[in-house]
Amino acid sequence: MAKSASPSFVYRMSIFYRFVLIFVLGYFCMLYLSLSLTELFASLFAKAEAIFLAAFISILFYVCFVLIGFCTNSLIKLTLISSILLAVLFGLSVGLS
């Protein structure tokens, strides 16, 4: 029986980091996008429609964020792009409210 090589500790930590980065930062990006879109749509639609549309678009954004996050090879690029996107969406949500 041949022993299979177990993954190294660094590899396991990079996978854990990727999971935390994608799901936690993705959630915060979705949150700030939802707040921003709700403020933008409130002037165009009724309040309930604005909230529903903002939530729906934000959930689609979150799904795309997670899929693209797992397709990205470089953790450094993923970290930079996610952090910049979070900062932009945070700034947009603060600026609109």
List its salient traits.
Iron transporter; transmembrane; mainly alpha; transmembrane helix; about 100 residues; membrane
Explained architecture:
The chain contains 3 helices and no strands. It has helices at 9-42, 47-71, 75-96. The protein starts with 8 loop residues before the first helix and ends with a helix. The protein has 97 residues and is mostly helical. The longest helix is centred in the N-terminal third of the chain and has 34 residues, at 9-42. The chain has one domain. The mean pLDDT is 92. Helix 1 packs antiparallel against helix 2 and helix 1 runs parallel beside helix 3 (75-96).
Average pLDDT number: 92
H-E order: HHH
Strand content: under 5%
Number of strands: 0
Coarse shape: elongated
Structural class: mainly alpha
Poorly predicted spans? none
**Main sheet record:** none
Bin the helical content: over 70%
CA(first)-CA(last) distance: 64 Å
Query: Any idea how many domains?
Result: 1
Query: How large is the count of helical segments?
Result: 3
Q: What oligomeric state do these chains adopt?
A: single chain
Radius of gyration: 18 Å
Task: Give the helix/strand layout.
Layout (H helix, E strand, L loop, with lengths): L8 H34 L4 H25 L3 H22 L1
Helix pairs in contact: 1-2, 1-3
